[in-house]
Amino acid sequence: MSGQGQRLNVVPTVTMLGAMKARLVGATRGHALLKKKSDALTVQFRQILKKIVSTKESMGDIMRSSSFALTEAKYAAGDNIKHVVLESVRSASVRVRSRQENIAGVRLPKFEHFTDSAGDSKASLTGLARGGQQVQACRAAHIKAIEVLVELASLQTSFLTLDEAIKTTNRRVNALENVVKPRIENTISYIKGELDELEREDFFRLKKIQGYKKREMERQMQAAKNFAEEKRAEDFSLQKGISMNSAYNLLVSGAERDEDIIF
Question: Which residues form a coiled coil (predicted)?
Answer without folding.
Answer: none
